[in-house]
Amino acid sequence: MALFGSVARPLTREVPRFQPYRRLGIEQLHECKDVDLAVWITDLACLSDLGRARNQAVSQVAPAAGPGVAHHQVDIFLFDFASDTYLGRLC
């Protein structure tokens, strides 16, 4: 499993895409839109279990850590363990 995307980047200041900030040149810490996970699997039969585990994890983190991400903001990219072939995303 690997975390990548905007959440995995070091925090840096940037001018966000929103008009009031962009027009005034106000910098903020970069925007994290979602959580991207790469997961290598050996069996496609586990997809429903993987989806349930994602939903449970998101539900458990939210009360403990405050506002976080919604279930649909956790993208899981699936790869074949043996060949590193991209298989698609978990919906």
Fold and architecture overview:
- The chain has 91 residues and is α+β, with helices and mostly antiparallel strands.
- 27% of the residues lie in helices and 29% in strands.
- The chain contains 2 helices and 6 strands; from the N terminus they run E-E-H-E-E-H-E-E.
- It has helices spanning 19-24, 47-65, and strands at residues 2-4, 13-14, 28-29, 35-41, 74-80, 86-90.
- The strands form 2 sheets. It has a 4-stranded mixed beta sheet with strand order 1-4-5-6. A two-stranded antiparallel ribbon has the order 2-3.
- Helix 2 links the parallel strand 4 (35-41) and strand 5 (74-80).
- The longest helix is centred in the middle third of the chain and has 19 residues, at 47-65.
- It starts with a strand and ends with a strand.
- The mean pLDDT is 85.
Question: Secondary-structure element order, as H and E?
Answer: EEHEEHEE
Overall number of structural domains: 1
User: What helical percentage do the residues reach?
Assistant: 25-40%
Radius of gyration: 16 Å
Instruction: Give, in spatial order, the strands making up the sheet with the most strands.
Output: 1-4-5-6
Distance between the termini: 17 Å
Strand count, sense and barrel status of the largest sheet are:
4 strands, mixed
Question: With helices defined by DSSP (H or I, 4 residues minimum), what is the helix count?
Answer: 2
Low-confidence stretches: none
Structural class of the secondary elements? alpha+beta
Query: What is the general shape?
Result: elongated
Average pLDDT value? 85
| Strand tally | 6
* Percent of residues in β-strands: 25-35%
